[in-house]
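Sequence and structure are no longer studied apart. To make this concrete, we show below a single chain and its fold as tokens.
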Amino acid sequence: MSTTGFDPGALHAALTRLPRLSDLPADALEPMPLKGVAHDHVRLRGRRLVARIPRWSQLDLDAWTALERQAAAFRRAEPSGHTPRFAGLLPPGDGLPSGALVVGEVEGRPPVLPADMPAIARALAALHRMAPPDLYDPLPAPADPVAALLAQVERQAEWFDRAGLSPQARDLVAHELAAARAGDLDPPAGTPVPLTAVGVDVHPGNFLIDAWGKAWFTDLEKLQYGHPGADLAHASLYTSTKWDPAVDAELAREDVAAFQDAWAMAVPGDLADEVRPWLKPLRRLVWLRTLSWMARWSAEGAALSPGMPEPLRDHMDAHAADILRPERIEQVRREWR
């Protein structure tokens, strides 16, 4: 993992090396407000394009590997009709150490929950029902995506010991980890495990709603092939719906059920049937995945993404503190207890 800055002059020079942007004036670069923790974004005014510049790799990849994987993700997801189009790759170099992608600009507003959750469900369904590629590489495609998700939780669990959790919170987390390892909520053995394109980081703040009410998924850094039920969990858990200060909402159980129903209506019936038994166990696993990531943020957030605007950092810190409180942990786990 490394954090990087970029030089606007180097960005402009790299952009003008793309044939379609050779005449781009320097004053067309318009920095966009920093919204997330891993990327800077610069609008190319008048071109309906955005430069997407990595600040650090959340997957702990080197610059070239991370950039090529993101480029593949945008190309693969484009046929869904719910993600920005891929328009170019800027290689890493002086002043642009992590390189950049150029993608189509999506004009839209942040989602309003719960009203926009069905639109998000339809966007996810469009990803999940895409035909698989002949070759998954360079995007991950674990043979058993549920086991891979548990393995990711296990790798990140060390951060629970470094995040200064209260003894009560630590005990609750330990109980959940033990239950997940034992497969307490898993469906019967032999239940099919589907493998589709999944967005992974599909919290509602990573969507924009356009003027026609269509949801666009904009952050494809972690796109891979996995279990679509994990996306349904991540998009609707408390840890995700409260993540982005522009969304900052809490869903009722009936809102989650309506979201899941909207997704099921937008995918083939056999896929909906295969996913349904996994909805509850994957909510537990995805919650643990997010909780452990936020434990890491609590321990070293300032080092992970230096230079964040103070209001955004304050929100992230407060969100991490909130979801790691024993009362909040107990509230979420009531869903499956």
